[in-house]
Amino acid sequence: MTEQTVRLQFIGGGKMAEALLGGMISDGWAEATEIHVVEPVSERRTMLAEAHPGLSVGIAPMAEIDAVLAVKPQVAPVVFPVLADARVPRLLSIAAGITTATMEAALIEGVAVVRSMPNTPALVGQGMAAIAAGAHASEADLDWATSILTAVGRVVVVAESDLDAVTGVSGSGPAYVFHLAEALIAAGVAQGLTPAVADTLTRQTLLGAAALLSESGEDPAKLRVNVTSPNGTTQAGLEVFADHGFVELIDRVVAAAADRSRELGG
After folding, report:
1. pLDDT, tens digit, 9 for 90 and up, residues 122-137
2. Distance (Å, rounded) from C-alpha 114 to C-alpha 91?
3. Fewer C-beta neighbours within 10 Å, C or N terminus of the chain?
């Protein structure tokens, strides 16, 4: 495998990187032979090579090839000098909390940096990502980043200052849904259902509600009203939410996640 045949390289070969490269190959963005993955763990390199025949894998980046930074934030400072030496011309970062200014200062002068906050549903092709341009990134660079991320979901463009709020809503949001699922299953069991039945009911209810929300185009408040008969069972349940400050609680949850994102980025 040579630099001449590679269009993109992933710095880090974890689950999110594999989801992205797999989606890009499936969508025809690139052939496996046109992607290089830098991964320090030999077992992981072997697994990626076997799962995607023709994929280039190694322990060092290729020179002057666009890259996706897919490492944990604490690893990034070690990686930046290597990327600078490789003269990476364009970088899409999915590493949480690292500002475009930090990346630009560590890389070659004038590098186009796009920062992203994706989420884990990308692993099943249903991701939600927001992207923000660095100082030297053009509309063409944003289009490039969007083309990568839409292989596994949807993308919106925001100001970088909004990415902490994005983290609080969609970046961390799947965990809130999973926590709700845990609670619904436990509550169903407490009402006498078997764990298996409670689990099935919860998974399909969340899936169906999400599909209805996505496909109907209706305002969430309207959908809630549609299923809430006066003095019925749903109203009884929703009144408990209201009595315990559900809306205020969600506001505090999102704010806490956004604040932590700001701390990590500082």
Report:
1. 989 999 999 999 999 9
2. 6
3. C
Q: For residue 215, what is the DSSP state? A: H
CATH of domain 173-265: 1.10.3730.10
Q: What is the pLDDT of residues 6-39, one digit of tens each?
A: 999 999 999 999 999 999 999 899 999 999 999 9
Asked if 77 contacts 103 with a C-beta cutoff of 8 angstroms, the reply is no
The pLDDT assigned to 248 comes to 97
Q: CATH class for domain 3-163?
A: alpha beta
- Confidence class of residue 4 from pLDDT cuts 50, 70 and 90? low
Domains 3-163 and 173-265 share a fold: no
pLDDT for residue 3 = 57
Domain boundaries, the chain: 3-163, 173-265
How far apart are alpha carbons 47 and 151 in whole angstroms? 21
Beta pairing partners, 216: none
Rounded-to-integer distance, Cα 3 and Cα 36, Å: 9
CB 200 within 8 A of CB 206: no
Q: Which structure tokens are listed for 87?
A: 């003269």
Find where tokens 């259902």 sit: 193
